[in-house]
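Good morning C.,

I know you're traveling, so I'll keep this short. The sequence:
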Amino acid sequence: MDSVGQLGPTDVAELGSRIAANVARAVKVPEGALRDLLIALMAAGHVLIEDNPGVGKTALARALASSIDAEFSRIQCTSDMLPSDLIGTNVFNQRDARFEFRPGPVFANMVLVDEINRASPKTQSGLLECMQERRVTVDGVTHELARPFVVMATQNPVEYEGTYPLPEAQLDRFMVRISLGYPAAGEEAAMLSEHAARDRVLDVEAVTATAEVIAAQEAAARVYASDPLCRYVVALVDHTRGDPRTELGASPRAGLWLLRAAMAHAALQGRDHATPDDVQALAVSVLAHRLLLAPGSEEHERERIVADALSAVPAL
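The tokens, ready to paste straight into the viewer:
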């Protein structure tokens, strides 16, 4: 990997615009979803895409990977999949009379875990260490993963037969949850015309390299977050814990990811400091999917709980 000099916020903003424009040329994706995806990339977070089949989830992941010249792997989850199918295993080499580690598909820069809720809880747990610590341990030996490393997992929100709901510990590893939705009629007609003869994602060319993405992540991590802003984030997540519609509110990890998302949002706008506006822009995307609802609460209330917290908690 070639080295890249230190980037500033304006460099991050320019890079984000370049990547977004390149992805949008191949995949029709809502502006908000693309924004959240880029924020997750710049903050070294993971993405859960929850949407109906056929709306372009896989195409989006492929287009993003191609845009940053990243190694891409796709995992199609099934109920009989084992953790070793994800992370790899030790195989005995008869010629050398020793075991060798064969890395699994998580040893890539961008890993698409398709229909993650079709994998068993045992297999889902195989992703916990690699998503949190960017490494895997096999037979007592730790193996570091690539940088950058982003897991994009998908699940179908309307089909539950043969699925295993993601536990709260797994959901908490995802920085943001996004939904693509169906395109407008005009956009869908244009997409049919553009993709009828050829998969447009195959034509996506890299507009940057992974080294520059890593430098941008480091620049986003240097964005200034004041003590009052940190206390504002803590107050927001604490408000979700006291909401009667939740059995378990947002965790400290959720607050940390919200702050990192705000810092990445600021960097993508060319600023060297984060503000309450950055927090408010990302709060629903980062917090809503982490809430464990109380009995009797409806699924659609997740977003309302976060919105009510934003209304109730004054920015410091």
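Safe travels,
E.
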